[in-house]
Design brief:
The chain has ten helices and eleven strands. This is Haloalkane dehalogenase.
């Protein structure tokens, strides 16, 4: 598998993101290895909060939340998905499959870091990957937070706005990642923050993963990933693992999933689920401190 690796100097001077990256190698599923990056903060012996980002962002998205959770005594672990951030970037569209992305994060979380008693925080693709992990390895997870995400099976049509996003990011001559993130926010970003989202992608050759990810979402019942997602959804519906549903009030892509999670998930019953106000799809960017506060309260509550 051919890959690109973003030069370190692209990440110099990131605003509000002082964390030193850590690295490991995982199997690429093609007789080679991939370097996967993550940042972490908080006590090393505390139960971990695994925060997974989505498309087309990277762990920089969680910079407002990491200090809040670490200050509350939690070990916060924020990986960069393969193809994003400081992680290696496979250069062919066909190198990216849903199953591979689940496996790459599984290998990091369990084989390398041996995380246990995990609280998952998943947004966008972070939920699509993280919820698979939670369903397939329930003994590793103690709590789940879903935030502007879902677990598509292809049985329900995707909203039109998602199809528009897919067409835009797949057909654009070049991808302005910072602009895409800003378009998914309710509140304006500074130029420095937009540059932070652009940092992993020096030119379009590094953008294969952002282009590939929309096509990996099951949009029909016979999609290759549909059976695994359908099985995961069924397991999660019956799981007693406490689940906090913390969606924003302004996400046209996944907003309709909030009441479905609240209604269908056993672990979501009897929990007061917040609504993050004046926030778009990337609610970590719009209201990260607020979302982190809800998670801290959730972790303090009896399980």
């Amino acid at each position: 598998m051919k890959t690109l690796r973003t030069p370190d100097d692209r990440f110099a001077g990131l605003p509000e993101f002082p964390y030193t990256p850590r690295y490991c190698d995982v199997s690429d599923g093609d007789a080679g290895t991939l370097r996967v990056a993550w940042v972490q903060d908080g006590p090393d012996d505390a139960d971990p909060v695994l925060m997974l980002h989505g498309e087309p962002s990277w762990s920089f998205l969680y910079r407002k939340m990491i200090p809040v959770l670490a200050a509350a005594g939690h070990r916060v672990v924020c990986p960069d998905l393969v193809g994003f951030g400081r992680s290696d970037k496979p250069t062919r569209l066909e190198d990216h499959t849903y199953a591979r992305h689940v496996e790459w994060m599984r290998a990091l979380a369990f084989d390398v870091l041996d995380l246990r008693r995990v609280t998952l925080v998943g947004q966008d693709w972070g939920g699509l990957i993280g919820l698979r992990l939670a369903a397939e390895h329930p003994d590793r997870f103690s709590r789940i937070v879903v935030a502007n995400t879902g677990l598509p099976t292809g049985d329900i049509p995707m909203p039109e706005v998602w199809w528009q996003f897919r067409k835009a990011i797949q057909s654009a001559p070049s991808i302005d990642v910072g602009r895409f993130v800003q378009s998914g926010c309710r509140r304006p970003m500074s130029d420095a923050v937009r540059s932070g989202y652009d940092a992993p992608f020096p030119d379009d050759s590094y953008c294969v993963a952002p282009r590939a990810m929309p096509s990996l979402i099951p949009t029909s019942p016979d999609d290759p990933a549909a059976p695994a997602n359908r099985s995961a959804w069924a397991k999660l519906c019956e799981s007693p693992t406490p689940m906090l549903v913390a969606f924003s009030d302004g996400d046209p892509i996944t907003g309709g999933m909030a009441p479905i999670f609240q209604r269908q998930m056993r672990g979501a019953q009897g929990i007061e689920h917040p609504v993050v106000r004046d926030a778009g799809h990337f609610l970590q960017e719009d209201a990260g401190e607020e979302l982190a506060g809800y998670i801290v309260d959730f972790l303090r509550s009896p399980s």
